[in-house]
Write a structure and sequence with these properties.
Helix content: 25-40%
Radius of gyration: 22 Å
Number of helices: 13
Number of strands: 11
Bound molecules: pyridoxal-5'-phosphate
Structural class: alpha/beta
Order of helices and strands: HHHHEHEHEHEHEEEHHHEEHEEH
Strand order of the largest sheet: 1-7-6-5-4-2-3
Strand content: 15-25%
Largest sheet: 7 strands, mixed
Distance between the termini: 58 Å
């Protein structure tokens, strides 16, 4: 079990006292055919009505798919919104600190800076795992959140489950596990731990495996108390009607999504030996995500060459531990073909 976790101890006073804005659509309960309550236009445009503020249908479907009760689900306008809400709910500007583990997703640090929260960095170990001892040493009485990304962006690997559990057990405030790439991973989600650890928050998204980056649907899994706090704070209509609809249609087509994910994983594994055979590729790191991280002879050169051929990848060399590393997203089979062709051209220059 976790240490004594008390959500009230870490919730900002103004949030504890907040009485949420009550929108027309959230006050209305029951059935109606004539909506004259929200000053909307009555003319059909495909978006003339305000959306469901609590995304009922989307949550019901997600709850079935993810096997997590609706009251432990929060939907944000992308994971980014959830990350920002966590800061605004559970940290105190200028006083609190959070811990991140570079090389990792940059948004945690940006959100920390935006909220005037000190961001303490503990580098991953040489094999990109959590440095548990160093993290525990960095924690003090003002540490509110530890961010863990698993599978990690941009290294691709997943973090050891026992390390995450160790932190959940030895840190009394929030442990946020970002599982944006879980759909590509051999391991299952940590949602099974939610009932044992009230200080656990899990983030997922429809932006990657589900192919909905443009619809901005982030998912937070946590205790009912945490979800209720975030729900109280969020903008009333944070997820548009159009986005809710397109995401729901996609959830209902989950077998198609599973097929697409399987193809991406196949492609990833087909590409690995081909890329390994290139003489300028020094290392391909293990990955549980829809991208490959490569160490090459000269990342900048390679990046520029591909770009001049209309292919854009990500140079990650400026991150610690990632000298001369590029991150390549797995595309359609024919796109990956084009990439490989250009890489061989580059080799023969
Ligand atoms: C892509 C990504 C996300 C997704 O963010 P959204 O705002 O949901 O699109 C979250 N975390 C990580 C680590 C990512 O790489």
């Amino acid at each position: 079990m976790s240490k004594e976790f008390d959500i009230k101890k870490i919730t900002r006073q103004n949030v504890l006292e907040l009485k949420p804005y009550s929108s027309a659509r959230s006050e209305f309960k029951g059935h109606a055919n004539v909506f004259l309550d929200a000053n909307e236009s009555p003319y059909h445009t495909g978006a003339n009505r305000y959306p469901d503020p609590v995304q009922t249908q989307l949550k019901n479907e997600l709850s079935k798919l993810k096997k997590v009760p609706v009251n432990q689900l929060f939907i944000g306008n992308g994971s980014d919104e959830i990350i920002d809400l966590l800061f605004r709910a559970f940290t105190e500007p200028e006083i609190s600190n959070v811990i991140v583990n570079p090389p990792s997703f940059g948004m945690y640090k940006v959100a920390a800076q935006l909220n005037d929260i000190n961001c303490r960095e503990v580098l991953l170990t040489g094999d990109f795992q959590l440095d548990i001892e160093a993290i525990l040493r960095k924690i003090d009485e003002n540490t509110r959140i530890i961010f863990i990304c698993s599978p990690n962006n941009p290294t691709g690997n997943r973090m050891k489950k026992e390390d995450v559990i160790h932190l959940l057990q030895n840190f009394e405030n929030l442990v946020v596990v970002d599982e944006a790439y879980i759909d590509f991973s051999e391991d299952e989600s940590l949602t099974g731990l939610l009932n044992d650890y009230p200080n656990l928050v899990i983030l997922q998204t429809l932006s990657k495996g589900w192919g909905m980056a443009g619809a901005r649907i982030g998912i937070g899994f946590a205790s009912n108390e945490i979800v209720a706090t975030l729900t109280k704070m969020k903008m009333p209509y944070n997820v548009s009607e159009i986005n809710q609809k397109i995401a729901l249609d996609r959830l209902l087509a989950s077998s198609q999504v599973q097929q697409e994910i399987a193809i991406i994983i196949d492609e990833r594994e087909l590409m690995r030996p081909v890329l390994e055979s290139l003489d300028f590729v020094e290392k391909i790191f293990p990955t549980d995500a829809n991208f490959l991280l490569l160490r090459v002879k000269n990342a900048k050169n390679l990046y520029q060459y591909l770009l001049s051929n209309g292919i854009v990848i990500r140079d990650r060399s400026n991150q610690p531990l990632l000298e001369n590393c590029v991150r390549i997203t797995v595309g359609l089979p024919e796109e990956n073909e084009i990439l490989i062709e250009k890489l061989f051209e580059y080799q023969s220059l």
